[in-house]
Design a protein that fits this description.
Bound molecules: nicotinamide-adenine-dinucleotide
Radius of gyration: 20 Å
Shape: globular
Number of strands: 15
Helix content: 25-40%
Mean pLDDT: 96
Strand content: 15-25%
Structural class: alpha/beta
Strand order of the largest sheet: 12-11-7-10-9-8-15
Number of helices: 12
Low-confidence stretches: none
Amino acid sequence: MPSVIPIAVLGCGRIGRMHARVLARHPGAHLVAVYDLIPEAAAETSRELGVRAAAGVAEVLGDNSIAAVLIATPTSTHVDLIIAAARAGKAVLCEKPIDLDIARVLECEAAIRDLSGTVMIGFNRRFDPSFRALRERLQAGEIGRVEQVIITSRDPSPPPATYVAASGGLFRDMTIHDFDMARFLVGDIAEVHAIGAVLVDPGIGEAGDIDSAMIILRSRAGALVHINNSRRCAYGYDQRLEVFGSGGMLLAGNRHATTVQSFGSNHTGAADVVLPFFIERYAEAYSAEIAHFLDCVSSGATPMTSFADGVEALRIADAAQESLRTGIPVHLDKCT
Ligand SMILES: NC(=O)c1ccc[n+]([C@@H]2O[C@H](COP(=O)([O-])OP(=O)(O)OC[C@H]3O[C@@H](n4cnc5c(N)ncnc54)[C@H](O)[C@@H]3O)[C@@H](O)[C@H]2O)c1
């Protein structure tokens, strides 16, 4: 494999365009082409970055000069594109979730099992410098045996009703990142208990979903994990980790636009609001994710966020959905 990986981006929406920008400036990548079902979306990215706008997926996959594709299309298209790309011999970095239906995900797994190329799933939070450092220190034994984890994950504002209707629900769409983070910190999950409510946006309730949730997980090793989610947060994108162990605690806090704090007669330590949303908050993580993917394609190493991680996160999301429906904890009988 060449040291500079020729790559194409499929899907030039919110996240695809951001990935294309990262790839265009990464010294280990050569962004050859972008494609979007909406020609104008691809044309805009093509003009901005000076790359070819491909006419279709077939053109990208049939181009032998392209070694890898980044799939940033809507979730419902991921499985077909992963299979087609892997069969065409391309390495794949696909956005989360793999699909909303575990049966389709397992079909995809079977279809690509015997193909040798890299397949990586975009759980970008594992690449956040602070979360990654926290995990390294945890693994080095700094706080002893992990007993409790608190994952706080609140979006700044609710998505449109049309998005919610096709999202697969809060757990498969949003909490899936937190389920993956839980596995990153404490390993495989044995038990899931979820409660949820519509506290923010009645439209989300009308679309059959919830906008607020608290989920408790028990890891196979016995650690307890609490995830709290909201689709609305007045002070920005709230993303924090707290890990409590036998010998202490590790905390990773929010990111603010600046480090300036204000002190006055009515307040102390007032900081800027936190960074607005994922593109800003996880900018370094997305760059590190791309760098890791390119390294894996070059070296043949297994990605830190593998297809199997995508499967396990979805299994936990499904269990959370079941627990929400029944009101009782769900035991996961099989974790890879
Ligand atoms: N990792 C993260 O932080 C993160 C954040 C946001 C979204 N996502 C995921 O990324 C994916 C895309 O989300 P988004 O918010 O960018 O969506 P989006 O709707 O903004 O963009 C999707 C783009 O794909 C195009 N498209 C649709 N079908 C296509 C096809 N068959 N071939 C090529 N292009 C096609 C659409 O025209 C659109 O421009 C979703 O799976 C989502 O869950 C991940």
